[in-house]
Amino acid sequence: MIGPLLKQLALAAIIFIGLPNRMTSELLFSTHKLSLLVNETNSFSVSLSQPVKEVITVQLVVKNPTKIKLSETSFNILPSNDGAHQLEVTGLSPGLTTISANVSRDAVSTMHAVTEVYVQHSVILSYVSFVIGWLYFAAWSISFYPQLYTNYTRKSVVGLNFDFLMLNLIGFTLYSAFNLGLYFSPTFQEEYFQANPGGLIPVEPADIFFSVHATIITLFTIFQCFIYERRTQRVSYTALGLVSIYAVILVVSACFTAYSKLTWLDFLYICSYIKLSITLIKYIPQAYMNYQRKSTMGWSIGNIILDFTGGTLSMGQMLINGYNYDDWKSIFGDPTKFGLGFFSVVFDIFFMIQHYVLYRGLEPYEPLPGTDTENSERPNIPSESPVIADENDCDTAQTD
């Protein structure tokens, strides 16, 4: 009994004593983003999160070496060196590139050792792009409120399409799940870095705020549908069928993920693809409803104007950045973001034509009870009620 016990204690002691030597240090860059002009030089530093007992050789890797020049691409970090190693970066031509690192020891992690370097034509254009970014962020965030106010003042949601609301809620919920998962979950982040070595998490705090805020406001708008007048409006069977398809895709994907056939990162991307598809179709039910009613009453034009402003500014920012960083490939080589923004703007223009041109100032057409809208050329006259002349009128006519 004593022999096995002593062996276990000895093994535990060896593990405990050996832990400090096997603790992982991390290679750190002083910044994850650098901006500089062509022929301008900037600097950043490289250090370890904690000292190691061996010489560490660091090899820097530039994704696109035609864009920048490093003062050195390989150097050693000595065990006695607790300070940071300074490096200089010189811009050669406009564009975006990344600097990552490889090290000679497995005990040092390089997972977060990456810096994006932006080489630009003009500092002024970068400031213009920054301001435009905040403007379209504000326009898109505020765009949800005019519809809330319209519903509140009318005490009615008649004219607001419920299919649009449901698709919007699902889309923004999935978008929020994507942003929150990728920004906060170490598991998702680890899978992302494994799939994209030297990459950066493509989610900013502003993305999280926008998606969560949009989800909450959409929920509140749906709440208004329960407390205000809605008449016979409801979610269509077509929309319910589409949502059922989305639900099946999500459930099947979650099952594949649970059995390790897909990664959780793959599941997040499936959520984002569903969100993209919803963005393409969510405006169609509202546009068709306006056409049927021959009116836009109940559908806030303020929402459309702000969405149009945000979409136009977003595309403008992409064009400015395309020129300033000589990065047209990100727009035309992978047109998803630009195409979705353009598609939304086209729908906004269509809604404005409906509101200001086609149905300007028109009350919605609503058939009277008993109206035969299929057989009557004048559907405002109930076809089931025969027109009978008054007896006094008949007597007057005979006298004449």
UniProtKB/TrEMBL annotation:
Q: Give the molecular function GO annotations.
A: L-cystine transmembrane transporter activity; symporter activity
Q: Which UniProt keywords apply?
A: Lysosome, Membrane, Repeat, Signal, Symport, Transmembrane, Transmembrane helix, Transport
Where is the signal peptide, in residue numbers? Answer: 1-25
Read off the InterPro entries from this record: LC_transporter, PQ-loop_rpt
Q: Where is this region: Disordered?
A: 369-400
**Transmembrane parts of this sequence:** 124-145, 157-178, 208-227, 239-259, 265-284, 296-320, 340-359
Subcellular location, in the record's words? Lysosome membrane
Return the NCBIfam families for the record: 2A43
The protein here is known as Cystinosin
What is the protein's species of origin?
Bemisia tabaci (Sweetpotato whitefly)
